[in-house]
Amino acid sequence: MLESLLKKYWGYNSFRPLQRDIIVSVMQGEDILALLPTGGGKSICFQLPAIAKDGVCFVFSPLIALMKDQVDNLTKRGIPAIALHSGMSSREIETEMQNTLNGKYKLVYLSPERATTKLFRSYLANIPISFLVVDEAHCISQWGHQFRPEYLRLGELREIVPEANFIAVTATATEAVEKDIIKYLDFKKKFKSYRKSFSRDNLSYLVLQDNNKLRRITTILSKIKGTSIVYANTRRKCEEIAKNLQSAGLSAMYYHGGLENERRATIQQDWVENRTRVVVCTNAFGMGIDKPDVRAVIHYERPESPEAYYQEAGRAGRDGLAAYCVLLADHLGVSKHWSSFPTIQQLEHTLQCLYNQHQVAFTAGKGVTYRFNILTFAESFGIGVWQVMNSLGVLHSMGFVKLNEQIFQMPRAKFIVEQGELYAYQVKNKVQDIFIKLLLRSYGGMFDHYVPLNFGELAKRQKCSIGDIKREVKKLHTNGIVDFIEGHEGNSLTYLEARPTKVSFDKKKYLVLRDREEYRKAYILGYESRAIGCRENHLLKYFGEEKKEVCGKCDICRLAKKSALNSTEISTIIDTIKDFTVDKNLELETIVSSFGTFEEKQIITVVKWLLENQYLIKTNQFYTWKINQA
Question: Is the domain defined by 203-336 classed in CATH 3.40.50.300?
């Protein structure tokens, strides 16, 4: 039965390693911790048994974009699913919870904070549950790179549905994170843990040094064919890189939160369908996108953590064919945009400014959401944008506020009268009868759901103005025929706790968060700056995976293979060359002759590698070690 469902809905003939084992355990009602690498097919492990089992599967996910992508993919496959998120009104949420109770959906995606609401818990007690899924489960742990305090309360749902089993899935869990997941979700004693190696045999990890990163990206993409992603940390840099690639004759577009939603959707779709070859983007791009044939992921600058790099680089080569993960190193050690952890004073100041911005009274504000523009806020209170962003992340982890991701919601409407009453209204209102028929012809399910309205399309069909369409919808709303919700776009901010009379921070919790962040940054810096030892093994070690054999494909392994030297020998040669050439100008012959125990071609191979990565610079026939280079 499992294979037939896999073929019917996903078109695959067989499961990937561990997928079937996990699905069988889910079907047997066991608690499960599934640690699968990025691109390892985590979603099928709970989506398929959700179809096979009776009842509703609730999936708790931290990102609206991720939820929407998953639901869109399920809907295209004919699987009834819905996402409940902060961009929806309370009326919409209640409508869809009622639809869930009536059996309209097999999978319901929602944020973990919604699990704490009285409305959700009252419905949960009356809905037949197949099982509960915690996606991106590393968010449950303070040791995780995206710790979210609202995740800690998911274990409380066992009190409401004690018979339901939990499935926790993640691609970025260390040993400490695993222990927290098991603890806070209150796993049964006989839970199952599945862990697939985080190693991706088809990926080559490369770190390249170059003063001219724009030129290097063009060179890389001219050699590696197929679709690619280039990550940059700022909107301006995304635009600069994309325009540079376009000037070089490459099909490239930039993508970031500053673009209109329709523009972002078009860029993403053009890339997915291979009309655009390269997308240059901030790290918001790529979440939930199942594009298997990405041949290269290039990072213009160092990411914030090993988890972030593994997740983003892991979007390459999901089809199992050769792909490349390239990090362009920073010569001066720390990137200009590599943020520092905010001090307690900075956190307190930012929080007080937020309360003032939204005029939150003392002991009030818990659970209230406000529209929020980061740039306007930063300018109003004289705080740097990067400091605001960093502070908001820490304030979220400490349980004060949550910055909701930028979303675009089209205007929505739902009929709130029975069909008989609607017919009677149409008979009495001939002008509006024409418009009601237009709605009924254009959209299905308006008696059950809030349907997004495309005013432009409706105006074309009716051969009238958009203003006429809006006016008719609002008239129907005023007359109690439809419930109409205005569209909106932008960020919002939710206060997780009421404003205290005096702000105080848990110093111990703050130090844990700060120390973990500093460790992550030091580790990814070590990945970038190392000149010996396999890069993939260094990355895997962070996730508790020790490998004796090297990958053979990263730039360091390639150097070892080409030179027929081991890591210790390469390290010795590099250190010696550095000692010889710092503050000096030496010819290649002089450098080579300084070694008596290695072959000349081995020394030359290492020198070429040091030149390519700009540890050494060559002026005429002379070589010197680059200042500020490790």
Answer: yes
